[in-house]
Design a protein that fits this description.
This protein has a domain at 21-106. The protein has seven helices and no strands. It has helices at residues 2-15, 25-35, 38-56, 62-90, 93-104, 106-143, 149-152. Helix 2 crosses helix 4 (62-90), helix 2 (25-35) packs parallel to helix 5 and helix 3 (38-56) runs antiparallel to helix 4 (62-90). The protein starts with a helix and ends with a helix.
Length: 154
């Protein structure tokens, strides 16, 4: 029991350790994630989806859309907390500080300003290769005598 308690206290102290600037690990991660705009992009995407839904489904009440928007806010906060834990579990305080410095450098700012576009371009240009892989995969499975119709929705 004492060992478990000591371990829990050690983990909590490590997770909440302050760096030289007095910022906790979680605070630094939260700041980084907010600065790089990832959480805001997720929220904006969901809200855009809601706006499109309002046009497609005009019989859904404004109150229902507002309730959904409120749920999105809660989900985005949960998303932030999950990602804070992931970063905290995988980076030391010093490493996080170095990442944060990079985020705020000219190259880091350029990287994050281009990140979404780079992901979209990558996905777009890699789609033919993904389709090529899928075709080869399905052909291999079919050639072995399996029915792939349920896999392709045919």
């Amino acid at each position: 029991m004492k060992t478990h308690l000591a371990l829990i206290l050690m983990v909590l102290c490590t997770a909440c350790t302050k760096n030289n600037s007095g910022v906790t690990k979680e605070q630094e991660i939260r700041q980084m994630l907010n600065e790089n705009g990832g959480v805001a992009r997720v929220a904006a995407t969901h809200r855009q989806y809601i706006e499109q839904g309002k046009v497609r489904f005009p019989n859904v009440s404004a109150e229902a859309w507002q309730k959904l928007d409120n749920e999105v806010s809660v989900i985005c906060e949960e998303l932030l907390e999950v990602n804070i834990r992931i970063y905290a579990d995988n980076f030391t305080q010093d490493e996080l500080h170095e990442v944060h410095v990079f985020y705020n450098s000219p190259v880091g700012k350029k990287f994050f300003s281009q990140f979404s576009r780079l992901q979209q371009e990558s996905a777009q240009k890699n789609l033919p290769l993904a389709q090529k892989f899928e075709s080869a995969y399905l052909r291999t499975v079919r050639d072995a005598g399996y029915d792939t119709k349920s896999m392709t929705g045919e």
